[in-house]
Amino acid sequence: MWYQQTITLSAKPRGFHLVTDEILEELRRLSDVQVGQLHLLLQHTSASLTLNENCDPTVRSDMEQHFLRTVPEEAAWEHDYEGADDMPAHVKSSLLGVSLLLPVNRGQLVLGRWQGIWLGEHRIQGGARRIVATLQGE
After folding, report:
1. DSSP class per residue in 2-20
2. What is the DSSP letter of 55?
3. What is the model's pTM?
4. What sign does the dihedral 42-118-7-32 (CA atoms) show?
5. Smallest Cα–Cα separation from 84: which of 93, 95, 75?
6. Are 19 and 9 in contact (CB under 8 A)?
7. Tell me: the pLDDT tens digits for 7-51?
8. CB under 8 Å to 84, separation ≥6 — which residues?
9. Which residue from 17, 28, 30 is spatially nearest to 110, judged by alpha carbons?
10. Is 78 exposed, middle or buried (0-12, 13-18, 19+ CB in 10 A)?
11. Residues 40-96: pLDDT tens digits?
């Protein structure tokens, strides 16, 4: 079985956001898969997807502080006509990536106890974000 749909995440401010539930609420055919995988592709170049801590929100704020220090807006970026936060957002997106491949078993994602799907919103106001979700399995 193959199934594909596009999920639109609501607009979020800059930072890291736990979006596991938002994705699962929209994913219509997950329960049909006994064994398989879910591929998620974020269709943007100034945001990212990553798998990380799903419990303590201070991990997300610490991660944001790390990236603000590591990839500063004040650097001498040549690409700056879309705003000071745009080029740093592209760098952060490339560092973290825009896709995840996750196992599915008995209609559920197989994640570690403390793992959740994060959206890294790297623009001050990035707007709604689209994810192409592709399910493969039996």
Report:
1. EEEEEEEEPP-EEEEEE-H
2. S
3. 0.97
4. positive
5. 75
6. yes
7. 999 999 999 999 999 999 999 999 999 999 999 999 999 999 999
8. 73, 74, 77
9. 30
10. exposed
11. 999 999 999 999 999 999 999 999 999 999 999 999 999 999 999 999 999 999 999
